[in-house]
Amino acid sequence: MKPFCTAVLLAILLCDYSTGAFVLHVKNRRSLTNHQRPSFALFKARRPVIAGNWKLNPKTIAEASQLLKLLHANFVNHRTPAQLDVEVVVFPPFPFLLEALLVLQGSGIKVGAQNVALQTSGAYTGEVSASMVRSIGVDYVMLGHSERRAIFGESDVDINKKLHLCLAEPGLGVILCVGETEDEYESKLLASVCDVQIRKGLKGVSINDISRIIIAYEPVWAIGTGKVATPEQAQVAHTVIRKTLADVYGYQAADSVRIQYGGSVNPENVDSLMSMPDVDGALVGGASLTADSFTRIVDGSATMSRVYARPKELSAQLEVPCTNVLGESPIWSVRDQALYWVSAPEGEIWTLTRTEPAYRRLASTVVGCIGLMESNQRGSLVVAGEKAILGLFVSPDTTDFASGPRILCDRPELTDVTRPNDGRVDRQGRFVIGMYNTYHRTPLGEANIAGLYRLNKDGYLESLLDESMDYRVSNCICFPASGDKMYFCDTPTRKIYSFDYPVEFGGKLSNRKLIWTMPANMPGGPDGAQVGESRALNEIGW
Ligand code: PGA
């Protein structure tokens, strides 16, 4: 289930009678204009670098730890080689640095410090030195952020001094922030302000050390304001900065320096910013405080995510107004000549036939998904409810279920942290149910995974995932006609996988292949899917 939609538009698309192919479209889904569509240079020589500047957030170590664990979970599994090739750094406040280093181990995410002292040691109460942060394993220090310049009065001379202290620590890199204020921008001073900040900030830095420095161009008017620079504005500024670097270090060295853009970067705008030839990454403030949005920003900056083909876009041929909060699990019954679906949190099962207006029946439980049940009786459904898996009949003649729900078995994972979510009857007639884990939204427990189960005809529920596979949501479950493959997606990470499907009892899913990652600038998340007319997974609703 997903929180993205508030209203559901039922769209009947490519109605394939043998497989029942329907796609749910969300009414207020935004479509991308041509301008928003990424048009990327496929490979940049400079390795993209995405940094998360946490500033004075979050309030406690518990919250910091939670964010770090979610980031770790997003980064340890399921990354494409191109996504792995993005350098990722987070900059938590000093008291959380050790925790970050600990929790992020094995994730590939580096840790940076937001500032260091102007001195190396001695009587400087409250200060933290470059050698201190390097000695615990910090890889980067951020210097010259506009908030430090404006609020704490740091001058270019101070910044330059700190930068040399950092370079004195072997292996320590620096992100040097520069950028003009709104007034300076209006007065056309962008070029001269950035030029001065770069020259003074890098004073005395040798060409040999320039590879340890990343420049972050952050127009002050874009920081924390939601007023992002256009990709074209960012490109102009980055060219100006690279020209200054070329003046000082020559073209070859200047060409190797990575220049990040910073200021209101989010999952929606990162792709178009990254499509600019001189934008080599992003320095992200607000959007780095949510694991999923930061992850999407990183994914959006990975070169490979740009070459994935988009799925074919479909549009509705028929709209049926209804009041559903979350319309899920649409299924067409050839026997009943009816479409069934659920409005999940309301516990409603809806029916639409070719002749009757849509009507609903109450299931009195949150409904994850439904499937058709083998029976001669109209309206027989299997229902994955919050408390149990039920068999029931939906009748057009009564306001309630014609015959009371029959409990087929307990629901899997009897915990508060997970609940049945998407499901689909496989090609052998067994009901496969994916679980939804609320951990990524509310910290209810430690287990950050959710399983996938198959209800056999004898009522026995078996687990299909081997223990090494961790997912938080199994959505978009579907089977091609061959019956020996299965698709599903993990909604929080927006990745769709194919597997070899174990037809025999007791088997596990194997041979996992990542087949598509939703680009960062595509809104929503995959939630329900069915195979299309070609019997391949080529329609996805979100
Ligand atoms: P923002 O901050 O992304 O919240 O605008 C950027 C920064 O200050 O580095």
Automatic annotation (TrEMBL):
Belongs to the triosephosphate isomerase family. Coiled coil: none annotated. Its EC number is 5.3.1.1. Keywords: Cytoplasm, Gluconeogenesis, Glycolysis, Isomerase, Metal-binding, Signal, Zinc. Catalyzes the interconversion of glyceraldehyde 3-phosphate and dihydroxyacetone phosphate in the glycolytic and gluconeogenic pathways. InterPro entries: 6-blade_b-propeller_TolB-like (IPR011042), Aldolase_TIM (IPR013785), SGL (IPR013658), SMP-30 (IPR005511), TIM_sf (IPR035990), TrioseP_Isoase_bac/euk (IPR022896), Triosephosphate_isomerase (IPR000652), Triosephosphate_isomerase_AS (IPR020861). GO terms for molecular function: metal ion binding; triose-phosphate isomerase activity. SUPFAM superfamilies: Calcium-dependent phosphotriesterase, Triosephosphate isomerase (TIM). Pathway: Carbohydrate degradation; glycolysis; D-glyceraldehyde 3-phosphate from glycerone phosphate: step 1/1; Carbohydrate biosynthesis; gluconeogenesis. It holds the Pfam family SGL. It catalyses: D-glyceraldehyde 3-phosphate = dihydroxyacetone phosphate. This is triose-phosphate isomerase. CDD domains: TIM. One of its GO terms (biological process) is glyceraldehyde-3-phosphate biosynthetic process. Binds 1 divalent metal cation per subunit. Substrate binds at R419, N421.
